[in-house]
Design goal:
The chain is an alpha+beta fold and 237 residues long. The chain has seven helices and four strands; from the N terminus they run H-H-H-E-H-E-E-H-H-E-H. It folds into two domains: 54 residues; 161 residues, no CATH class. The protein has a four-stranded antiparallel sheet with strand order 1-4-3-2. Helix 1 crosses helix 3 and helix 1 runs antiparallel to helix 7. The chain binds heme C (HEC).
């Protein structure tokens, strides 16, 4: 085997080794970044929902106390306000989702599905856990979810969620007396769950990865070709 062939073989092996190492590392960094980007979006959405809940309690509910006596106004309920805000958001971002998934909800649309119940039970069974983050594969692609427990820390919540006899009559007229009661102080009754799509961020990460690898392969090919040219030139001398 000639010297040039040996040198080329060593160079090609080295190149492949470097490409593999850089490729694996870059892929991991890019995927992690894509996940962080999705998580940032989920956090903004979660905090916005919490802000809307707070605004409803502080500013809307006091204004409607009198009207509430005649007819129950869901607009005074923080959960209703947060869901209404997300419904508006979904007209432009239909894949973003927010739910106050609850094991025994007042409004049946808030009933937790199987995977949501697993998260709620995880919060109920694990002490001091404040957050759950994960990914789910669905028919419309991969989603990242962010979950926060809903714990009854304020006794005022129990006026509508403990016993039907304690709840305003107008609430019972609207929602009935069989759901959303029996909650207890300090009990975790559900979870706020935000789901954001990951497909677009993952595709962007993959495109960047392919571009980086194409640039590196071209660079190595040019370097090996130049080295060979250089060798030809030296040997002729
Ligand atoms: C004035 C009565 C009232 C009070 C007080 C109240 N809620 Fe509710 N809550 C409701 C009603 C009505 C709904 C259903 C709203 C809808 O149609 O989406 C609801 C919905 C919810 C939901 C969504 C799941 C479900 O049951 O449908 C959660 C979670 C919740 N409330 C938590 C709380 C917490 C926590 C507090 C105290 C900070 C509280 N609520 C105080 C009446 C009340």
């Amino acid at each position: 085997m000639g010297l040039r062939l040996k040198l080329n073989l060593v160079l090609i092996l080295l190149t492949l080794f470097c490409l593999l190492g850089i490729g694996l590392y870059a892929n991991k960094v890019l995927q992690d970044n894509a996940r962080e980007e999705a998580l940032d979006k989920a956090r903004i959405m979660m905090e916005s929902a919490k802000a809307v809940r707070q605004y409803t309690v502080n500013e809307i509910r006091p204004l409607l106390v009198a009207q509430q006596k005649r007819r129950f106004l869901p607009q005074t309920v923080p959960s209703y306000a947060a869901h209404s805000y997300v419904k508006e958001l979904q007209s432009n971002f239909p894949e973003f989702n927010y739910k106050e998934a609850t094991l025994n909800p007042t409004n049946p649309v808030d009933r937790a599905t199987e995977w949501e119940s697993d998260i709620i039970n995880h919060f109920r069974n694990t002490k001091n856990i404040i957050e759950a983050i994960g990914e789910r594969e669905t028919a419309t692609g991969r989603y990242l979810y962010l979950g926060h427990p809903i714990k009854i820390t304020n006794s005022a919540c129990l006026s509508c969620h403990s016993k039907p006899s304690n709840a305003p009559k107008t609430l019972i007229d609207t929602y009935g007396d069989s759901n959303g009661f029996g909650w207890k102080k300090n009990e975790i009754v559900g979870a706020q769950l935000v789901s954001v799509p990951m497909a677009a961020t993952l595709t962007r990460a993959q495109d960047t990865f392919y571009l980086l690898m194409a640039a590196l392969i071209s660079l190595f090919v040019v370097l090996i070709a130049l080295l060979n040219l250089f060798l030809t030139f030296i040997i002729k001398q």
